[in-house]
Amino acid sequence: MYTLYKRVSPYLVALSMAFFFLSCTNTDNLEPEPNEVGSLSIEFEHLVGGSPFDLDNEYQRANGETFSVSTLNYYVSNIILSKEDGSTFVVPQEKSYFLIRNHTPETCLITLDSIPADTYTGIAFTIGVDSLRSVSDISKRTGVLDPAQNEGMYWTWNSGYIFFMMEGISSEAPEDPTGTRAFRFHIGGFGGYESATLNNLKDINLSIHHGEGAIVRKEKQPKIHLIVDVLKVLDGLEDVSLEENATVMFNPYSSVIAENYTQLFTLDHIHN
């Protein structure tokens, strides 16, 4: 075996070193230009415990109950991005309503445009549709808020949005007249307009605890990756018996499901 040596010019060495240090410089951390804006995306990845989540797959809880999910939909609204110094950027409300539908993967990745260039280390949002929008004129409720186009996420009999819908089959659910052991969670209630009612609007606040934040620049679109653990709808702050609570809609027990789904979300990491 032979090793070949070649004399290298000191000038070339210096030039190479300068190029190396320049290429390793993280220009993304440079101060943004005045009035610079960019985009930011948020991904909702659904799991069951630590396992991948798929519609109609059967899963088993710690208490022995088995279940599968055929429908998983929920509203995300009123998004606020926070910075390290504690200041925030509130996404304009007209651009801040999204309907996540697990059976439609493209809805599980949302994009926010015209975000001021900065570094964001946290995100807050509401599960549901706020009271003001819920009672506003139908002309102001378009897109995913249009009751005629939101896949049944609206009670016509109750004139209100279903914030969170989860339906499926469980071995422990009572048989319905067709012999199916189905469970149905349709959770809503914005607190009422003329009189107080159930209020199942829930605010979620998440921060990144390690690594850098989401760096928004004109030519750069970071992605905040959220993990959504579907199991916590049943095994959250309170265990939900599918035998005793197979159908939960506009009743007091809906508040238990609502408290549980506040535990679903974890800010896992950020792609810059």
What's the short story on this structure?
The protein has 272 residues and is mainly β.
Secondary structure: elements and pairs:
Layout: H1 10-24, E1 37-48, E2 51-52, E3 59-60, E4 66-83, E5 88-90, E6 97-101, E7 109-116, E8 118-127, H2 131-134, E9 154-155, E10 160-170, E11 182-188, E12 202-207, E13 214-216, E14 223-229, E15 247-248, H3 254-261, E16 265-271
Parallel strand pairs: 1-14, 11-15
Antiparallel strand pairs: 1-2, 1-7, 3-4, 4-5, 4-6, 4-8, 4-10, 8-12, 8-13, 9-10, 10-11, 14-16
Structural overview:
The chain is 10% helix and 39% strand. With 272 residues, it is mainly β. The strands form 2 sheets. Strands 3, 4, 5, 6, 8, 9, 10, 11, 12, 13 and 15 form an 11-stranded mixed beta sheet that branches. The two termini are 45 Å apart. Residues 1-28 have low confidence and may be disordered. It has helices at residues 10-24, 131-134, 254-261; strands spanning 37-48, 51-52, 59-60, 66-83, 88-90, 97-101, 109-116, 118-127, 154-155, 160-170, 182-188, 202-207, 214-216, 223-229, 247-248, 265-271. It has one domain (34-271). This is Copper-binding protein MbnP-like domain-containing protein. It holds the Pfam family MbnP. It comes from Shiella aurantiaca. Residues 38-249 form the Copper-binding protein MbnP-like domain. Keywords: Signal.
